[in-house]
Amino acid sequence: MHTEFSRRKVLSGLVVGAGTAVLGWNPSTRAWATAPGSTSGIQQVPDLDGTLLLPADPSAYSEDFGRLFTRRPRAVLTPGSVSDIQKVVRYARDNRIPVAVNGQSGTGADDRESHSHHGQALVDGGIAIDAKPLGSIHGISRGIADVDAGVTWSALALRALESGRTPPVNNDFAHLSIGGTLSVGGLGGTSQRYGAQADQVEWLQVVTGTGELVRCSRDNHRALFEAVLVGGGQYGVIVRAGVKLIPAKTTARSLEFTYTDRAAFLRDSMAVMRAGVVDDQNGYAEPKPGGGWSYRLALGLFHSAPDEPDVAAVRAVLSPEATAGPTADLSFRDWLLRFDPDWAALKAAGFWAAKKPWLMMFVGPENTPAYLDTVLGELTATQMGAGPVRISPMDARSLTRPNFVLPRRRTHEFFEVSLIRFPAPNHPDVQGLLSQNRRFYDRAVRLGAKRYLVGAVPSMTRGDWRAHYGSRWTELRALKRLYDPATILTPGQGIFG
Predict the structure, then answer these.
(1) Helical segments of 421-484, H only
(2) pLDDT (tens digit, 9 = 90+) per residue, 130-180?
(3) At what angle do helices 262-275 and 368-378 cross, to 10 degrees?
């Protein structure tokens, strides 16, 4: 270890408002020593290009998008290089200090959180790594974007559009970090055709839990490649990725169809996906003011002039129960950012900063009606707040990552059923909503369902995780021991205890 703390590093930590520079770790007190101070008994922090600081604001990096927990890190790494992440992970391994990456997703100062919902990206008493400095798009060549993990999907999408390309899958909230979504999957309205964002990766650069920097792909270090994608941050820190791009159309036509009959809505949802007549598809159940639910198909057809979208082909597969709603033509750029006004309205009304116990499940089509009987039979408009229940069909053949475990089903089709809750900021019983999530989760699991990693499912046990991963569990435990033997990475997931 270094015996002297460099003048450059000390001064970098003394910038007003930046926090206090960390000198090293005291193993006997399990606390940081700050500069200036005695170095006796201190495990010195290695020399860094960036900074390792005690945050000036104790609440910094202490919450995620769900706002259900406050877990304060002891220090924050703002890396000046990938080498900094390697050094700090090695240091954390040697001193048994937990580490987690905070994607710092969003577009402004009020979005400084990771978009998990149950504390998965938080690290109580450990080191939070700010991914935003890893924010370069290094280049786009032959349909592959070479990007740092801290780049947002919106930044990549807008850059790619300059050369007429787009990521195959874009999130509804476009400003998430690439590394963060690759760690959990990353879904959007085109996932029926292209799978998750994690299915669009050619290669990764990963810092493992031992501090080793590894370039991996299907052909090189494949076990690590498959473990890290949809791995919940358990096996390594994604620092760079090669992401596939496809040709982009110039225009998107938005179509909506509403239903009062749930069975017709489910049939039409599946029929649209099977027919392949749209490019983007989402479905929603929304509480009606007087009770009960209405259902809505939200569809997108991509095209470039002089071609026109084939709306007739869409109508041909829909049942008579479908009632046509509003339609609009948007530039493809505006389509990618079409939800931004909704997010702005939620922020202005206080919903964005409130507690949000989302739950995302994947259910076989033969069991979806029974699951919806439970969920929609109990949910109220107050419990959902400003959010809908998303009910969208998926095709298992497009989901190629082994960590994206799929529900029990008779065919390759299934439904995503997600509670996109935005309860009122003053909701009186958030704990009751979490308990409800757990009941819904247990009901879904009995029906053969699987969960999405970012949702809020309280009290997940080792047995729950073993059941979730099924036959992959033994291999994942071995990979955890291999790539993170000190068990320091992303403890908030709770997968390995």
Answers:
(1) 430-446, 462-469, 473-483
(2) 999 999 999 999 999 999 999 999 999 999 999 999 999 999 999 999 999
(3) 130
